Amino acid sequence: MGELQSSIQYLPGMGPKRAALLQKELGIESLSDLIHLYPYRYIDRSSIYPIREISEESMVQIKAKVVSRSLYAKGGEVIDPGKGASEFRRASRLSVIVEDESARMEMVFFKAIKWNWERLSPGSEYIFFGKASQFNGRLNMVHPEVDKPQSNGPATGLVGVYPSTEALKSSGVTSKLMSRAVSTALALCLREVQETLPDYVLRDNGLVSKRKALFDIHFPKDNASLESARYRLKFEELFLLQLSLLKQKYVRSRGTKGFLMPRVGEDFNSCYKALPYSLTSAQQRVIKEIRADMMSGYQMNRLLQGDVGSGKTLVAVLCCLLAKGNGFQSCIMAPTEVLAHQHFTSVTKFLAPTHSRCALLTGSSNVAERREVLEGILDGSIDILIGTHALLEDNVVWKNLGLAIVDEQHRFGVEQRSKLWKKNTIAPHILVMTATPIPRTLAMTLYGDLDVSVIDELPPGRKPVKTICIDESRKGAMYKFIREQIASGRQAFVVYPLIFESEKLDIKNLEQGYEDIVAAFPLPDYKVAIVHGQQSNEQKSFNMEAFVAGRADILVSTTVIEVGVDVPNASVMVIMSAQRFGLSQLHQLRGRVGRGAEEAWCILVKDHKTSKEAQSRLSLMCSTQDGFELSEQDLRMRGPGDLEGTAQSGLPIKLSIASLSKDSALLSKARDYAGAILERDPDLSSEENSLLRRELSKAKFKIEDFSRIS
Ligand code: ADP
Ligand code: MG
Questions:
Q1: Residue 546 pLDDT > 80, yes or no?
Q2: Ligand 1 pocket check for 310: Cβ under 6 Å
Q3: What angle, 0 to 180 degrees and rounded to 10, lies between the N-to-C axes of helices 337-351 and 537-548?
C-alpha cells in the first residue's frame, strides 16, 4: 500500500526537475494526481495511411522506406557529411525522402540532426507519425515520431494527448513521456485505487468499475472502451457533486424552521394597485414562488436571478410587504452606499400608497439619524430597513426580522450574510438577488443547494442599447459623438479595465485615460468625475453622487460601477480596451445605460491587442442583448471543463472531466438520480450508501467552499 501517494519523480523520464515543474504547472505531485490527469484528446494510431491518401494538416501514421537523406546549411547550401562529423554542426536542416507503394514524401528535422541522420538509414522501413503539411508544393512532416515497425512496435489504437503548458513542452515533458509515466504509475498503483460508487449505482447506470475506467481513459483499447470510461468518470464527477449539494439542501429544508407567513396583507395590495404598470409575468411567477416558500414553515433560501433592468427591486419591495402583512420586519442589504441610497429612494416611492415605513442606515449616517433608526428597528415602527454592511453591526437589534434580502451577492461574504440571521433565534427567510445571468447548468452546480427563481423577461418597451465596436484609432469620432450627446443633456460613462497583475499600473492606466478625456472635454464646458478602487469610500460616493445628480457629464472609472448604479440620464457607455473584459462583465456594464426612455449606446473600444477570441466576444455583444444567451455563449467559449477555463470562470470547484456546457444532459440525469437516492436515504446512513458517505466527506465536497449563501 501507499504507492498512490508516492512522488512522480521516480517514474521513467521524470526526475526531480520535471517533477517539480509538473507540480508547478499542473499541480501534479503524486502518482494518484498523475493517473487522475486525463488526456484531453486522442489520436487514432490504429491505422496506417498510404501516402497518396494523406490530406494536409491531419495527424497521420505512415509506414515507409527511406529513399535518401540530404543535409542543408542555413543559406540552403548542400552539406556533405562525408567530409567529417564537424559538418553536422553547420547543418540547419535534415531532409529525408521516404516512400511507400503509393507515393513519396519528405520528413524534415531541424533538431537532433546528426542523431536522426544516423538512425534513418536508406533502404530501411519505419513508422512515421506526425502532422502532414504542404510546403513548396511537396507533402512533408516536420519532426515526426519515428518507430521501427518490428521492435516494440509503434503505438496502436487510440493514444491520449495530455494537457501541457509551454514550460512543460520546452523542458521535454512531451505527451509521449507523460503517457509512459502514466503507464508505469498505473502498473504500480492501480490495484490500490478504491471503488467510489456503490454496486447498485454502477448497475443502475451501466457504469464500468473505477479501475477499468481509470485504465481505459489513458489507454483505451478502442472507441467503445474509451466511451464507457469517459461516461463513468463524468457521471461520477457530476453525480457526487450534485449529491453533495442536494444533501445540503435536504438537511437545510428539513432542519431549519422558518417563520410562517400565510397572509398577504393590506400594504401589499395597496402598493400593487397603485403601480403605474402591471407586473411582467416573470415577476408574477417569481413572487408566487417566493410566497410559497414563506408559507411553507421552512426557512427560504432563494436566489433571484434577473437581468439588469428586469425589475428585481419591485419584487423585493412586494416581498417585504408580504412580511409586513404577517407582522414581520425586513431588510434590504446593498453592497455600496450609492446603491443603498438608490434603493431607499425607489422603495420610498413604492411605499407611498401604503402604511409601511422604511429607513436608511449606512456607514455615513450621523449619530442622530442612527439613534432614530435603531429605535425604530427595536420598537418595530420601521418595517423595512435599507442599508449597507452597517446593518450587520451589533447595535442593530430587531424587533422581529422575518426577511433579509441581499442585493448582488458576490460582494457579500458568506460569513457576513450568516451574521444577519445569527441575531435571530429563528432564521429569517433569505432572498439573494443577482443580475449576473447564470446558465442553468452552472446554476445547478454553483447553487445546487439553493432554490433558484429567474426573471427571464424585461418590462415591455425597453429599447435595446445600440452596441458598436470600434478601433482605438477612431476615438476622435467617438468624442465628437459624446459631445453631441452631452449637448442634448445626456451623460456618459467611460470605463477602463482593471489589470489584475498590478494595481499601480491600473491607476496609471486610468489616470492616463482620465487625462485624455479631460483634454478632449475641457472645463468649463464639461465636467468629468473619476471613481476608482483606490479612493476612500467618501471620495467614491462624492464623485459618484456628482454624476448621479447630473453635476458631472462624464464618469471615468474602473469597473466599480459594475454593480447596479442607476443613472437614467446616462445614454452612452464607453468601454475602453473592451477586449480585456469577459462577456458577462461587458453585459453588466452595458446594462448601466438604456434605463431611461431615451435611446442609448454602448461603444466597445478595442485596441491592437485584440485576439481572435476576444473579437468574437465583442461581436457577440454587438449582436445580442440577452444576458442568458451571452452567459451560455461565454461558458461555451471558455469551456469550463478545460484547465484554463476553470480558473477563469471562477468556478469554486474544479471539474476534471465533465463539462458544464457540453454535458448538461448528463448533469440533469446525475442530479435526478442523486435526488432519488436522497429521497430514500436522506442522510446516506444505510450500509449500501457507505461509499457515498465516505466520498462526500472528502475535502472537495465541503459545502462551505462553494455555498454562497448563509
Ligand atoms: P433591476 O432588476 O436591474 O434591479 P430595477 O428593479 O431597478 O431593475 O427596475 C428597473 C426599472 O424598471 C425601474 O425603473 C422599475 O420601476 C421598472 N419596472 C419594474 N417592473 C416593471 C414593470 N413590470 N413594468 C414596467 N416597468 C417596470
Ligand atoms: Mg437592481
A1: yes
A2: yes
A3: 50
| 0.90 surpassed by pTM | no
Residue whose C-alpha is closest to residue 59's, from 177, 153, 158? 158
Please choose, from the candidates 547, 488, 557, the residue with its C-alpha nearest in 3D space to the C-alpha of residue 517. 557
Pocket lining: 313 vs ligand 1, CB cutoff 6 Å: yes
Q: Give bridge partners of residue 104 from the DSSP assignment.
A: 99
Question: What is d(CA 171, CA 144) in angstroms, rounded to the nearest whole number?
Answer: 18
Give residue 253's pLDDT band: very low, low, confident or very high (50, 70, 90).
low
Report whether residue 433 contacts ligand 1, using a CB cutoff of 6 Å. no
CA 454, CA 306: separation in Å to the nearest integer? 6
The full length of the chain comes to 710
386 Cβ partners below 8 Å, 6+ apart? Answer: 331, 332, 333, 334, 340, 343, 344, 347, 358, 359, 360, 361
Amino acid at 709: I
Q: What is the pLDDT of residue 642?
A: 33
Are the CB atoms for 482 and 492 separated by under 8 Å?
Answer: yes
Pocket test for ligand 1, best of 279, 280, 312, 313 (most atoms within 8 A of CB): 313
Q: Is the pLDDT of residue 153 over 50?
A: no
What would the pLDDT profile of 269-321 be if each residue is shown by its tens digit? 999 999 999 999 999 999 999 999 999 988 888 889 888 788 999 999 999 99
Q: Which residues contact 510 (CB under 8 A, 6 or more apart)?
A: 496, 530, 532, 556, 557, 558
Closest ligand relative to 588 C-alpha: 1
Q: Provide the pLDDT for residue 246.
A: 85
User: Distance from CA of residue 499 to its chain's centroid?
Assistant: 18
Look up residue 658 and give its amino acid: A
Give dist(CA 536, CA 520) in Å, integer.
27
Strand partners, 221: none
Residue with cell 447548468: 441
